[in-house]
Write a structure and sequence with these properties.
Blueprint: H1 26-53, H2 55-67, H3 75-81, H4 92-121, H5 127-131, H6 133-170, H7 178-195, H8 198-207, H9 213-218, H10 220-234, H11 239-278
Helix pairs in contact: 1-4, 2-6, 4-6, 4-7, 6-7, 8-11, 10-11
Length: 279
C-alpha cells in the first residue's frame, strides 16, 4: 500500500475576531471608526452641495420666520420698515451660504450619524443594551427633529416678533446682517434639537444607575430653575417667549421621570425573576 497521502489544500485561517467584532484589533477598530465617520460626512457634504444648488429656495424657507412678521405689508411698505438682510463685508454672503449649508447638512445627515454611531457601538454593548439600541436611536432622531421643528415653527417667529416689537418701541432702525440672522437661526434650531435630548439623557443616567427616579423628583425644583435660566439665555427678555421654551422642556423632564420609573420597575422585575430562577 502506497505511503503517499493525497494532498489536501489547507484552508486559509480566518482571523480570530472573524464573526466576533469584540475581538477586532486596535487598527481594525480605527478602520471601522474611519468608515463610521466617513459615511455620515459624505451624506453631509451631498446635502450641503444640494443646498447650494437650490440656495435661493432654501434661503426663502429659512427666511420664513422673519418674513411672517411682514406678511401684511406691501412691497413698498416693507422696504420702508425693513429693507431686508444686509452684508457689511465682501465675504458676508459666503458666510450666510455656509451657515445655510450647515443647517441643511446636519438636518439631513443626522439620521445617518445616529445609525452608524449606533452600529459602531453595538459590538461593545450587552444583549440588554442592544435591545434598546434601535428604539434609543429612533428616540434620538425623533427628539432632535422635534426640537428643530419646535424652534423653526414656534419659537423663532415669536422671538423675532418680540425683537421687532422692542426695536419699534425704542425707535431703533433694524439693519440685520446675513451672518447675524443665519447664525442666530443655526444656534436656535440646532440648539433646540440638542436641548430636546434631555429626557433621553436622563433615561440613560437612570438605566446606568447614576441617578434614581426618586432623586429626579427630589431635585425637580432645581432642574426647573435651570430650565428657566436656559430659556432666559436662549430667548429675548420677554416672558411669553421664555415660557414658550421653558414649558416644553419641563414637560419633557416630567416625561423622562415617568419613563425612568417604568424602566427601573421593569429592570427590578427582571432581576427578581432571574434570582427566583436561580433558587
Amino acid at each position: 500500500m502506497s505511503e503517499i497521502e493525497p494532498y489536501e489544500e489547507e484552508e486559509d485561517d480566518e482571523p480570530e475576531w472573524a464573526g466576533d467584532p469584540k475581538q477586532m484589533g486596535f487598527l481594525d477598530h480605527l478602520e471601522e471608526l474611519r468608515w463610521t465617520l466617513l459615511k455620515p460626512l459624505v451624506v453631509f457634504i451631498l446635502a450641503f452641495i444640494g443646498s447650494m444648488i437650490f440656495i435661493v429656495d432654501v434661503k426663502d424657507i429659512l427666511l420664513a420666520p422673519l418674513q411672517s412678521n411682514y406678511s401684511h405689508l406691501t412691497e413698498e411698505e416693507l422696504m420702508t420698515v425693513f429693507p431686508g438682510l444686509t452684508t457689511y463685508n465682501v465675504t458676508g454672503v459666503f458666510m450666510a451660504m455656509l451657515l445655510i449649508g450647515i443647517i441643511i447638512g446636519l438636518m439631513v445627515a443626522s439620521p445617518v450619524i445616529i445609525y452608524y454611531v449606533g452600529k459602531f457601538l453595538a459590538p461593545a454593548l450587552t444583549v440588554r443594551e442592544k435591545k434598546i439600541l434601535v428604539p434609543g436611536s429612533i428616540a434620538v432622531l425623533v427628539l432632535f427633529l422635534l426640537g428643530c421643528s419646535f424652534g423653526y415653527y414656534f419659537l423663532l417667529p415669536r422671538t423675532i416678533t418680540a425683537v421687532i416689537w422692542f426695536n419699534n418701541l425704542l425707535g431703533f432702525q433694524m439693519l440685520w446682517t446675513t451672518s447675524n440672522y443665519f447664525g442666530f437661526l443655526t444656534f436656535t434650531i440646532l440648539g433646540l434639537g440638542l436641548a430636546f435630548q434631555m429626557p433621553l439623557a436622563i433615561v440613560i443616567l437612570v438605566s446606568a444607575g447614576v441617578v434614581t427616579p426618586q432623586q429626579l423628583r427630589t431635585y425637580r425644583r432645581y432642574i426647573v430653575l435651570g430650565i428657566v435660566i436656559i430659556a432666559a439665555v436662549l430667548t429675548p427678555p420677554e416672558p411669553v417667549t421664555q415660557l414658550a421654551l421653558a414649558i416644553p422642556l419641563w414637560v419633557l423632564y416630567e416625561v423622562a421621570i415617568l419613563v425612568s420609573v417604568f424602566l427601573k420597575k421593569k429592570n427590578d422585575d427582571d432581576i427578581e425573576r432571574i434570582l427566583a430562577d436561580d433558587d
